[in-house]
Specification:
The structure is a single chain. α1 (19-30) crosses α4 (112-132). The protein is an alpha/beta fold. The protein has a four-stranded parallel β-sheet. The protein has a single domain (7-132), classed as Rossmann fold (3-Layer(aba) Sandwich). The chain has four helices and four strands.
Length: 136
């Protein structure tokens, strides 16, 4: 990662339907273009409507969220991969480009209240990480 190129960040959770989607939206919003965040899942499932609705409130999210299989990320270079639950790490196939990996354990939110808690916790961790890397 150079000063001119954004940090390439991949968020992974089991289904790529909630936690990794939320992390992707937040990272792209908080970093103001200094991070290029993507997300993927081991067993992709459809993104729930309440997550689509939530994401629509962010100006960095111009289209509907869609899921991506982790296999589709093979061959992509990432500066950092963040796994968002322990179960996913256990099932995570190795990516040949996986040179830096962080594991964050978050509960799966299933309603707007638990989503708000996830949003707050993820936002704080991302801000701290981006500050430490002089990205914001």
């Amino acid at each position: 990662m150079s000063n001119l190129q954004p940090m390439k960040l991949l968020f992974v959770c089991r289904h790529n339907a909630v936690r990794s989607q939320v992390a992707e939206v937040l990272a792209n919003s908080i970093s103001h273009g200094k991070v290029q965040a993507l997300s993927a899942g081991v067993e992709p499932q459809p993104v729930p409507d309440f997550i689509q609705e939530w994401a629509g409130g962010y100006s960095t999210q111009s289209s509907a969220l869609s899921t991506t299989s982790l296999q589709e990320m093979e061959g992509h270079d990432f500066d950092l991969i963040i796994t968002l639950c322990d179960k996913t790490h256990q099932a995570l196939p190795e990516l040949s480009t996986d040179t830096a990996h962080i594991r964050w354990d978050f509960q799966h939110p299933d309603n707007m209240e638990s989503l708000k808690h996830l949003e707050i916790e993820l936002s704080e961790r991302l801000r701290l990480m981006f500050l430490a890397k002089n990205l914001i």
